[in-house]
Amino acid sequence: MIPLPKAILTTLALLLLFILPSCRYMRMPDEKAKQQFAQHDMYAHLMHMSVDGISLHYVKVGSDTLPTLFFIHGSPGSWKGYEKYLMDTALLKHFRMIAIDRPGFGYSNRGHAYHLPKQSELIYGIVKKEMNGKPLHIIGHSLGGPIVVKLAQDHPEAYSSLTILAGSISPYDEPKERWRAIFVHNPLQYLLPGPFRVCNTEIWYFKKELYGMDTCYNRLTMPVTFIHGDKDNLVPVHNAEYGRQKLAFNKQVKVIIIPGANHHIPWDHFDIVKEHLLTLGK
């Protein structure tokens, strides 16, 4: 048996390896964010709303008369992970864009982990508020992928398409990672900064909750696109094939596998994702 101190150090190292790539997209004060958009001659609405007594935060840009791209980040993260998309002039010609801080991250009740069904319920509160009678397309990266699926299973009538970027949707391809439990059911969890603690806890929740979604894919009759890298060491590329198999009845499913790509699809392969998003406006 590994001595406890060594086990703890090993666990910390594994956890940090998983989450450090997302650290560059942590939260930014609203005033500073507005200044950044202003530097690009843009106005951004930095929104706060309460859903079921929980404060949620999101960013909205573009005309309310256009269809919507609704972005959901992974774990950890914030709306800033989609900043480049929000500032893209080609996308703004065709879409209003919304990017959220998921519950537990950014300025959305930061530091509290939520189960997958509750996240879907809370995020739908924003979706419902921002409906404008135009098509609404939801995009999720990594752990945002299963949230996109859950949102669409809960309210399939609300969404015109789903885009899942390196999404961890298959319960059968999830690594066991029992080491995560050390930081879920133990005071040691408070050794971790808030976002990292939430990241670890929600991943532990989701591993079990993905099974509950497995029988509800028949509700997804809208266009669904999976974009994944074949060198993704965090979320295996077979997740995309799992999605294709679960949606075999749906003739509007597309799978894009990027050779040599790792888990950072939204940032390392912006042009591929953007090209796909532009097709949604046609």
UniProtKB/TrEMBL annotation:
The source organism is Mucilaginibacter celer
Q: Single GO molecular-function term?
A: hydrolase activity
Recorded hits in InterPro entries, A to Z, give: AB_hydrolase_1 (IPR000073), AB_hydrolase_fold (IPR029058)
Record keywords: Hydrolase
**Domain of life, source organism:** Bacteria
Work out whether the entry's keyword set contains Cytoplasm: no
Short name of one Pfam family: Abhydrolase_1
Instruction: Report what the protein is called.
Output: Alpha/beta fold hydrolase
> Which SUPFAM superfamilies does this entry report, sorted A to Z?
alpha/beta-Hydrolases
Q: PANTHER family under this entry?
A: ALPHA_BETA-HYDROLASES SUPERFAMILY PROTEIN, HYDROLASE
- Which Gene3D superfamilies does this entry report, sorted A to Z? alpha/beta hydrolase
Residue ranges of the AB hydrolase-1 domain?
67-192
